[in-house]
Amino acid sequence: MKPATFPRTCSDYFDLIFDEKQDLFLFGTEKADVIERELGLCGYFVIVTSAKMSAKEALDLYKSRDQHEKLFRGDKSYLGNKSIRVHSSESVSGKIFVEFIALIIQNSMYCQLKDEMEGYVAKPNYMTVPAAIKELEKIEMIRQMDGVYQLDHAVTARQKNVLKAFGLDADHVRQKAIDLGKALLKPKPTITSEEA
Predict the structure, then answer these.
(1) CB-based contacts of 81: which residues, under 8 Å, 6+ apart?
(2) Within a domain: residue 192?
């Protein structure tokens, strides 16, 4: 067997363990702190602008534009623009218009959820647009025995966090449920003396 030789860079990032009797390489253990420090230096970029702004403002503007590009690229996948599936030019125009409005709403939701998460230490997985919509879809009304529609269950903590991102709270949802329940309450038919 031939003794293994490694370049010096390997020993910078790994502790190399050899069998001293046979001078054979056994294994290597990573130097986690060194690797972590090196990874911390990766991924830097420069934004050059002629407008006066802070680094944070420039980064937010860059990320916003990047988000718009990804949004329109994603239009093909999650809004179905890859295949139009309509036959007239009026239908194509209508479909593209609806998709455009949906992209605006989706981007607005994304920005509001992102702003809300800035105050969080941990990043909850339910604060993405699809997950937030799923959480809000769980808020349901059911018809009671007396014919009045009411909330099926109380607003959960997750739902409260999502609502907070949009400037709403559980009281607002309860009030809207009461208003909707009243609107859905059908007046009982009255029996006239002639029918009796």
Answers:
(1) 75, 96, 99
(2) no
Please state the φ and ψ torsions of residue 177, each to the nearest 5 degrees.
-65, -40
pLDDT digits (tens, 9 = 90+) for 27-63: 778 888 888 888 877 776 677 778 888 888 887 777 7
**Claim to verify: residue 145 and residue 118 sit in the same structural domain:** no
Q: Are 157 and 104 in contact (CB under 8 A)?
A: no
110 and 149 belong to one structural domain: no
Q: What are phi and psi of 16, to 5 degrees?
A: -90, 125
For the whole model, what pTM was predicted?
A: 0.53
Instruction: Write out the residue range of the structural domain in which residue 70 sits.
Output: 55-122
Q: Are residues 94 and 118 in the same domain?
A: yes
Span 67-82, pLDDT tens digits = 666 666 666 555 555 5
